[in-house]
Design brief:
Radius of gyration: 19 Å
Strand content: under 5%
Keywords: Membrane, Transmembrane, Transmembrane helix
Oligomer: single chain
Number of helices: 2
Number of strands: 0
Order of helices and strands: HH
Amino acid sequence: MKRGIISVFISLVMIALATYRLWSLDQPKVGPVGDGEIPQFAYTSMYVALAAGIVCLVLGVVRIIIEFKNKGEGREN
């Protein structure tokens, strides 16, 4: 049960950080750098982190469900 909860928590943190990075990348910049054009590959790491967070969230929920089923049947891993 603990592993499933930790997996869900870590995946939510990954999703939140990727979402924040996507949001902050599109915010207007001031100063000498200004609002230059952002290359497309800059988004790749954020989309990969977002996808990994979603996959980890699903796996964490599946792990919790499997542990509940095993506990109900009297088996332990």
